[in-house]
Write a structure and sequence with these properties.
single chain, alpha+beta, three-stranded antiparallel beta sheet, 5 helices, 12% strand, globular
Amino acid sequence: MSHQQSPVSGRVNTQQHSTAGTADLFLFDLKNEASEHGFKADESWTLQLSTDEEIAGLKRQYYPVISSRLKPAALLEVFQVVKQRLQQTLSSSDLALTENDIARNEKKHLAAFSSKHNRK
């Protein structure tokens, strides 16, 4: 029985590893961009799940905008992991999100921006 469960367990661990790796890379990019653009210690990133149109709008309004295009299941997991690692509280609506909600609403990107850094 444990032999049959092993592949499933391995797949879950691989998926969790992939999610953690993607989250780590996203956080690394945030740290570098914050340093490069002179973010102050009290500045934080706003995280948003975005459609193609929304990401284009964010890029017109804010600089820098860090984004990653992911499939719905990965997008949800990476969003939650990144919020937690940034010590941002997951709202009840964040916690209630499902992969189906993300797909239905055509959310494809995890976007991060600082509302204090508008494009001029």
